[in-house]
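Morning. Coffee machine broken again, so started the prediction first thing and wrote up yesterday's gels while waiting. Chain of 189 residues, entered below exactly as on the submission form.
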Amino acid sequence: MGDTIVTAGSKIKAIRESKSISRETVAERTGLTVQQIELIEGGESLSLSPMIKIARALGVRLGTFLDDVESDGPVVCRKEDQNKGVRFNASKNTSKHLNYYSLARAKSGRYMEPFFIDINNTAGDDFTFSSHEGEEFIYCLDGAVEVVYGQKSYELNPGDSIYYDSIIEHRIQAINGAAKILAVVYTPV
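Came back before lunch.
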């Protein structure tokens, strides 16, 4: 996949300002600090969980931060265009080993977010749990993946999948250093 990293900070700031919502209000609604909101709006990369919280606080779909072109009809993402898709890195304080590539950024009004996710971790990496409203579907494409869901752990190999309620704390990591998954995240509006 390509090396272009796109952050959602400018879109978050524009939406927040257009709705006349203060950073303090967003912080209060999300549980993030005002300083974290400032960093995010300034271009700091963020992980999926804070993006979902901010989307809820602003009353918009998660995809609003990733939208590139709006299309009401079907959107086709060709293989050769996947590396041109929106990519965002998790912040250094959360799941820094996950790189997301949006597969539907041009579809307006969507409730699901499909991603390819490259998982690159090394022994000793710190893995932080995530939880947010909605559901997730993960399909392992390459490598082996460990999904820790609550108190249980599940190993996925190529062709295996898992579907779960994402309100339960969970984390994903490659078992042998690198893996690739297809993930579909649903967040209620």
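Residues 1-6, 89-94 have pLDDT under 50 and may be disordered. Going to sketch it on the whiteboard this afternoon.
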